Amino acid sequence: MDNSNEITHDFSPFFKVYKDGRIERSLVLEDLPAGLDPETGVLSKDVVISPDSGVKARIFIPEIVGSDQKLPLLVHYHGGGFCVGSAFHILTKNVLTPIVSRGNVIAISIDYRLAPEHLLPIAYNDSWDGLEWIAGHSNGLGPEPWLNNHVDFGKVFLTGESAGANIAHYLAVQVGANGWAGLKLAAVDPNLSKMGCQKALVCVAEKDFLRDRGEAYYKTLATSGWPGKVEFYETKGEDHCFNAFKQCGETDALNKKVVDFMTME
């Protein structure tokens, strides 16, 4: 009897593992090619973070950038429960290109390796490697010209949605704990850090099942004695990661809030 189709582990809605070792993911989206997005005028390119692990990233930059213009940098980690998602598919594009275009900022999304093929803490380690690779450009001598020539390393922001926000929190704590000179961090979106950041923006959606956890995080941060500035922003009537799945007035308002947070002193 062939029982290779027997499910041994069911982690719906993310993935299922079958007896023969196959892994079936519930959300699989094709990668989009890098290049010019005609709707927003944002250029993108893919870079290799680590030849050993194969970890890559996608950089998004406004099409019109002066030769000596320095812009804030948004470092992004995608959601997906650590086991689905990609820096290269439509959902990441949906999140980042409007912010890059509207805010005249640069964004880079780190494509960390996924569970269950790569168990935690590999996602954290890959994301840390990505942040170290980015920091290696702060002296203008890194391998990627877009970062060398156009990033203001005094204005680096960490962001993520869902699991990606958890990663952003972890990395900001690590930067603070290690006293990483040369990078002044700020944090955008839920679950962000108090140690490595000068300011934080905690964003929640009213109908999100994690909404109360996000608010509790904000209150804990605001009363922790941390000297930085923390803001709270709630989108009414929307659900988990809504801004990745649809363009609407609420998404526009959230994008404006993020841009204002990044670009205003």
TrEMBL record:
Domain named Alpha/beta hydrolase fold-3: residues: 74-179, 195-242
InterPro entries noted in UniProt: AB_hydrolase_3, AB_hydrolase_fold, Carboxylest/Gibb_receptor
Any coiled-coil regions, as ranges: none
Transmembrane regions listed in the UniProt entry: none
A single GO molecular function term of this UniProt record: hydrolase activity
Family: Belongs to the 'GDXG' lipolytic enzyme family.
Protein name in the entry: Alpha/beta hydrolase fold-3 domain-containing protein
Species for this entry: Populus trichocarpa (Western balsam poplar)
